[in-house]
Design a protein that fits this description.
By secondary structure, the chain is mostly helical.
Amino acid sequence: METQIPIEEMLDLLEQTKKQLPALPFSWPLEKQFENGKFLQFKYWDTQCIWMGFQMGLRCAETIGKGEPRRQQQARQ
């Protein structure tokens, strides 16, 4: 499997997105929890839910951009 967008880069993108979109609530606390120096999750559940959706969207976009689903489907035929 090819390299995916690193978590740190996705976290930066989420922070940039929050700053650039005025419609997003300022009440999103972006306080992070770490374990052994690595990002574990966001401290607040609402932000964690947003993060999970954001992360899934980026992974889907990454996969579609590579055309992997189409190639896998063609290989099965």
